[in-house]
Amino acid sequence: MLHEFLSTNRAAIISRTRAKVAERPAPRATEEELEKGIPLFLDQLIDTLRLSRASSNGIEKGATLHGRELLKRGFSVAQVVHDYGGVCQAVTELAGETNASITVDEFHTFNRCLDDAIAQAVTEYTRTREQSIANESTERFGILAHELRNALGCAMLSFQTLRTGSVGLGGSTAALLGRSLSRLSSLIDSSVAEVRLEKGIGVPERVSVCELLEEVEVGASMEANARGLSLAVTRVEHGIDVVVDRQLLAAAVANLLQNAFKFTRPKGNVSLRASSTKDRVSIEVEDQCGGPPPGKMDELFRPFSQRRSKRKGLGLGLSISRKSVEASGGEIRVRDIPGTGCVFTIDLPRLSSAS
Questions:
Q1: Tens digit of each residue's pLDDT (9 = 90 or more) over 201-221
Q2: Using N-to-C axis directions, what is the helix angle for 246-263 and 209-227, rounded to 10°?
Q3: Which domain range does residue 244 map to?
């Protein structure tokens, strides 16, 4: 039986397949794919062959389950196709070298299993992925509406209290109104930036880094004061320019500052600074959040990710910042200052003076 041959020679087939996949130029093999993916592919194929003997729709059932499992593990469609092909080559080679007593009909069944498994797995993978994206969009819009309603509700209540004249403009009620309006502005700016990113709407132009930070500083200073934080700004001199979409870059810097204000300890300090070399421009935002939880540094830029276990806000700011910077031809990175906080750096190509 073919599935028995696969089971008996499982270790040898996995070894051969790993070697083939590791040599693949594209898509490049990942450690997860080599260590866990290849055994999963072979085991799923063995189960599919076993099911095919029990029922006519066994192949389809096995492949459908396989597609769901691949999505959960983060494999791409290209990996599905190429890794199945690697398994097929390894099995064919080993069967020939060992003169395995596998009939022609069994090889036909094997090839049919591979063809159907790839088709069904990719189909199910695509369907599940599309459903996941749809669910994510629904969740995102629901959270956004909830955040907007909360901020607007606080602003309206604060305004009504101030309107009575029973409290002054310098008190906590006025400060709450200011924070609520700032939150509304931040949510709207982030949403507009995200829509522009998804639709590929970008207008590259020559932007003065000094002037851009001056614009961002106005709103950021108000936000810092409302939260009882201090904001230190170090700008580059005039004449340092970049070619970017002004709105997207401004939104990226503003989101980094909002994130810093949110997690910096009370009465703490947030720094916004810029520097340049002959070819590059760096914009840094440093906070005093105490540092991210252990092992969470790589998750900071994922959508709906939070620095703390207690969710607060959408968790989209850093994700949008990364997309905005990358859309402008730059990159964003973060480093941890143990016991103090984080430094987020936007790195962009500098426009030469000749240009």
A1: 667 889 899 988 888 887 788
A2: 30
A3: 204-349
Identify whether the C-beta of residue 248 lies closer than 8 Å to the C-beta of residue 328.
yes
Q: Decide: 114 and 45 in contact? Cβ < 8 Å.
A: yes
What CA–CA distances, in Å, run from 58 to 49, 50, 184?
A: 8, 8, 54
What the block records as the tokens of 219 is: 């709103």
pLDDT in tens, 118-147: 666 666 666 666 666 566 666 566 556 656
Domain C-terminal end among 87, 103, 134 = 134
DSSP string, 11-51: HHHHHHHHHHHHT--SSPPPHHIIIIIHHHHHHHHHHHHHH
Structural tokens at position 146: 């909830």
Please report whether residue 293 resides in a domain.
yes
CATH code of the domain containing 220? 3.30.565.10
Closest CA to 263 of 215, 227, 298, 294: 227
151 residue type, one letter: A
In this predicted structure, what is the pLDDT of residue 160? Answer: 76
Q: Are the C-beta atoms of 342 and 297 separated by less than 8 Å?
A: no
Q: What is the DSSP string of 128-175?
A: HHHHHHHHHHHHHHHHHHHHHHHHHHHHHHHHHHHHTTSS-TTSHHHH
The rounded distance, in Å, linking the Cα atoms of 327 and 325 is 5
Phi/psi region, residue 315 (left: phi>0; alpha: psi -120 to 50; beta: rest), is left
Q: Please give the order of strands across the beta sheet that includes 341-349.
A: 230-234, 269-276, 280-286, 341-349, 331-337
Domain C-terminal end among 134, 161, 193: 134
16 lies in some domain: yes
Handedness of CA 163, 166, 172, 173 (dihedral sign): negative
DSSP 228: T
Treating both helix axes as pointing N-terminal to C-terminal, what angle do 38-54 and 104-163 enclose, rounded to 10 degrees?
A: 120
- So what's the pLDDT on residue 186? 67
Beta carbons within 8 Å of 286's beta carbon, 6+ residues apart: 260, 270, 271, 273, 337, 341, 342, 343, 344
Residue 237 tokens read as 């001199």
Question: How much is the pLDDT for 274?
Answer: 93
